[in-house]
Design brief:
With 81 residues, the chain is mostly helical. It has one domain. 65% of the residues lie in helices and 0% in strands.
């Protein structure tokens, strides 16, 4: 994972696919559900952090600070290093 919002989005969809798989046992399904719950909690924090970065950038743009600055890596939608 390269730690961008696009990477997070892809990872979340992968987890949805895991949840939709048929599992041999209820225990295996329970493990996937627990993992998904943890992923949701961490993802929520990452999204909130990205939102804070976005709001900070918007504030800086509104007041003319930081012209010609690069997009923070977390918000990079290209998925490149």
């Amino acid at each position: 994972m390269k730690n961008t919002i696009l990477d997070l989005n892809n990872y979340l969809f992968e987890q949805i696919e895991r949840l939709s798989d048929d599992y041999a046992t209820e225990e295996e399904l329970d493990q996937v559900i627990k993992r998904s719950d943890a992923i949701v909690k961490v993802s929520t924090q990452i999204i909130e952090n990205g939102n804070l970065i976005f709001k900070t950038m918007k504030h800086m743009d509104d007041y003319g600070y930081g012209q010609n600055r690069a997009l923070p890596a977390l918000l990079d939608l290209k998925g490149e290093d």
